Structures are given as structure tokens and as C-alpha cells.
Amino acid sequence: MKKRVRSRKGAHGIVDVALRAGVSPATVSRFYNHPDVVSTPTRIQIEKAAADLGYIRNRLAGSLHNLFTGTIGLIVPTIDNAIFAEFIEAFASHLRQQDRTTLIASHGYDLSLEVQIVRSLLERRIDGVVLVGFDHDPVAMSMLADRNVSIISVWNYREGENISSIGASNTQAAKLITGHIIDLGHRDICFIFPDTKFNDRARDRKQAALQTTEAAGLTVPKNRLWNCPYDIGEAKVLAKKILSKDPPTAIVCGNDIIAHGVIYAAQSLGFDLPNDLSVGGIGDFRGSRISNLA
Amino acid sequence: MKKRVRSRKGAHGIVDVALRAGVSPATVSRFYNHPDVVSTPTRIQIEKAAADLGYIRNRLAGSLHNLFTGTIGLIVPTIDNAIFAEFIEAFASHLRQQDRTTLIASHGYDLSLEVQIVRSLLERRIDGVVLVGFDHDPVAMSMLADRNVSIISVWNYREGENISSIGASNTQAAKLITGHIIDLGHRDICFIFPDTKFNDRARDRKQAALQTTEAAGLTVPKNRLWNCPYDIGEAKVLAKKILSKDPPTAIVCGNDIIAHGVIYAAQSLGFDLPNDLSVGGIGDFRGSRISNLA
DNA sequence: AATATAATTGCAAACGTTTTCATTATACGC
DNA sequence: GCGTATAATGAAAACGTTTGCAATTATATT
Fold this sequence. Notes:
The structure is a homodimer.
Chain A lengths: L13 H8 L3 H9 L6 H14 L5 H8 L4 E6 L5 H16 L3 E6 L7 H10 L4 E5 L5 H9 L3 E5 L10 E2 L3 H14 L5 E5 L6 H16 L9 E3 L4 H13 L5 E4 L2 H13 L9 E3 L5 H5 L4
Parallel strand pairs in A: 1-2, 1-3, 3-4, 4-5, 6-7, 6-8, 8-9
The structure holds a DNA duplex.
């Protein structure tokens, strides 16, 4: 015996506007969706009527009819991460300028949540979805494919992937930084990378870094390869441990956040950067620029 | 003469599920919305039918009927900001666990966009909206009020505000840190705050900091009060300028990002923190912990 | 001036659900 | 067993739009 929780009082619909403008609802609808086909006088009538009534159209109702919601889903591992936040901000604000909205969801690197997230987005009938990287739950992917939802992957590039993507090659990036470090003459290089499970970007980077090193005739002993979460603080702690006894001459980090932590650690231990130690990262997010030591 | 862009092939509706389960659509609807009223045998039938068909319900259609979308709008100044990102992540992920979704929008501290944003959210018939602080476009606010949309303000607290809010008193925070600095014996204190236009949090902080200082019998000369954007890099540049000639003994910053920049500047100029200089900030976001100098 | 063509508009049938009301089947108290 | 309360279901009318089709009006062409 529940009552309507939110009253509809004062909420005018398209027919109210039509009535007030002296036209049919169809024409009002066209005014919004195909403004070019309605004549100038009627356009003015409708504009005025809508303004008078404070009409706000109901996209839900429209979407029901034409399967277009103007909403794009964005699934990221986490929002709380400098580099993703930068991206999300740019993405959402561009979309808003196109009169679209962004439905953001994060799974905290737990791919098992992807199915649940995708379902939730699909229930809201998103027009398309943007995913980070290539590692995804196959069930979630086929749910999207089955429903003809456009998919774009960002943040990585690989030849021959069968999903549309926009991104740089993480393999290439790792190859470049590692090659550069080696070219500088370093022979005792330490590698710190995040967990690569469910994270093709990190995996590509790590793999390429190690391959490049080996291709240069160097080997990477156990104590020169570490795992570290995406967190400046934890990276700092780990780096202090590494640097305080038997420090390498260079450290290649899987991302700039880890590199940041390493730099903090080195500084607090009194290292003179970059003379005592070379630190390389991958990412180039806005905060990286700041960390120069000048 | 446009054709449907997205085909509906293979997209089963509630009636398909009903047909397959041998019940009426009404019962299937109840299965989802009031599971307790449908009998166990039917429940099982429906579960199976829905799974077989890969049915994903259309919340848009439902919302059309019962004015409840399960979507909450979140309007923030910017996503790309450590402290907001932390909040958004937590907020969105909690909401997801409640089977709700978050529609995020940002205006980059340009309140004139609020009307546009609110309209866009309202067109999607959000159930409620979360805003940051108390400074808002009055038109946008009344649009929300007119439509009975629940509003919550976060990030600030003031006695007697007529909008529901969850947050700490920025006034009190600034009073505390400033008082603490003064209690430490500092008499030459510099203040660096962000622009306070459209930003009641910053304004409350700045005002309270200055008031507290004056209440202690100190005056704040022109060259001890600076404005600085929310950006580590810019704060660093500014702080270097301040510290390189005639440095104060303490700097109170409007937020931890600025404080971060100040610390970098001090370090790069060879200051021994906290002996040569006390630096205070407000915010306590996750990154702040890291910046301790140990 | 008459016809052909183009530009506007209205009608009414969807779109996929939810919910009220009514109906039927089931359990309970005596 | 009988009346009554309870539980489970179905039929059908919304919810607020959009759009194909048809009708009307204005414009162009000869």
C-alpha cells in the first residue's frame, strides 16, 4: 500500500508544453530532436512555452523508444589514481560538452566485478563503453558484444588486438626507458613493478623491461626484481629497504607513482639524484613534472 | 529515412522471459522488484528463463513508471584532484554495492556551468544529488528543489545552513592549525590560499586563519598573504619566490596540495624542515602522510 | 492559373516496464 | 466442511516520449 514517494506535482511533460504552445507533442519532440524541421514561428512558441513551464525533458522516455541514451560507460580500475583521475576528468568533461553523460564505475583491479558492473551499465542502456586495457572478463565482454554496444579500449596498444583501442604501446615505452638506462652505462639495475595480474599495461611493461635487459646481455637476479603496489608510500618503504643496503646504480619503475616513492626514499637517505642513482618511471602524469629536483 | 542504428535482434524483454517461464510479465517484474511475493517454484522458473535468454532488464522503462532511477548525481569542482578522487572512488563504489549508479559531473570551479549540469542530470531523472560545499548557482538549486530531488552537500559544515550536509567545519580546521602555529611561538607567518571565489571551503579557511591571527594580536602584511592555484607545481614556484628572500618562520597553506609544493620548494632551497620552517596544511588526503621527511 | 514539389505538422502506435485491481488457489479457525 | 483471511498470479492501463505515415499548407515551376 505504498504511495508514490516522489510526487509528480508541477512536473510538466511534453504534452503540457505542446498544449501551451498550441502545437502537437510530436512537434515539441521534433523541436528538441530535429530542430531544423520545425518552422521558426513554432520554434519560438515552443521555446517560450517550455521556458514558462520550466520543462525539462525526460530522456529516459525517449531512450525507451529509440535505444539511444546519450550515456557512455567508463570502467576504470580505480578513480583514485592520479593518472586515471586526469583521464576521467578530461573524458567526462568532453562528453558533457557533447550533451552526453558519463557513467563511471571502478572495480579496484578485481576483474570478477566486471560482470556485475557491465550488467549494471547495460541495465541503464549505455550507448557505448570505454575500458582500460585488454585484460577483461570474457563473460562481460560477450555481454557487451551480444548487445551491440560499442567498445573502446584505452591505455594500451598492441598490434592485432581485435578490440578498438586508443593508447600507446606499453611494451615500447618500457623498452625505451630500459634501453636508455642501459645506454647510460648502468649494469646494476633494479626493477620495481606493480602486480601484473589483471593488468596488461603493467605486464607489457614488465615483460619488455626484462627482455630488453636480457637482450643487452645482462641478467636480473632475484634481489633486483620487486613487486610493489600503486602507492607512493609503499614504494618509498620498499625503496628504502633496497637502497639502504647494496643499492643498484639505477631503478626502473613500472609507473611514475612508484618512481615518486623511490625518489622520496633516495632523498631521505641522502642520495644525490641523479648522480648517485638514476630513477626511471613510465607514465608522465601531471604530477611527474613537479618532482624534478631543481 | 533513417534506419534504427542499433538493432534490437537478440534483445529479449520481460515478456519473452515471462513466456518462457510460463508466467505473466507482471510476475517477472515482481520477481525483480518484490522477490518476496513470488512463490519459490515460479521464482525458479523465472530465474532459469532469464538466464537462458540472457535477459538484462531495462531500468529506463521501469523508471519511466515509478520515478526512481537508482542513479545519484555527483557534482564536483574537478575529478582531477587527489582529495576529490579519493572521495569519488569511495562514493561510487559504495553506491554500486547498493545497486545504484553514480552520474559524475565536474565544472572546474566554474559555477555558471552548474545550471547546464543540473539540467543534464535532471533530464536523466536522478534520484538525488551530492554537491560540494555551499556555494552554488541559485537557479540550479531551485531547479533541483522544484523537482523534489534530494540534495546533500559535502565537504563543509556550518551551523544553520538550510541544506543537508555532511562535512567538517573548514572554519574550525583553519582556526586549529593557525592557533597551533601561533602557539608554537611563530610571529612571522605567511599564508598561501587558493582563490576563494565560488569556493566556500577555501573562503572559510582563509577567513578563519586570518581572524585567528589577528585575534592573537598579529597583523598580516601584504607580502605575507598569497594566492595560489590548487597545483603542487605552481605552489612550489611561488614558495621558492617567498622563501628565497626574507623567509617567514611558518607558512600556513589553504590545502595540502599547496603545502606539498611549499615543502618541495623548501627542500630544494636547502631548508631543514621543520627546524628552519614550519609548514601547515589542511586536508589530510592520503598523499599527505607520504610527505613526511623521515 | 494549375500542377508538381517541398516544407510543416498531427495522429496514433510503439518502446519495455510497473502497479492497481481483480481473480483464483490455499490455509486457517471453528 | 464453511466462511474468512492470506498468498500468488494475471489483465490491462499507465509512464513520457519518438517516429512512420498521412494530411495539410506553402513554394516553385511551367
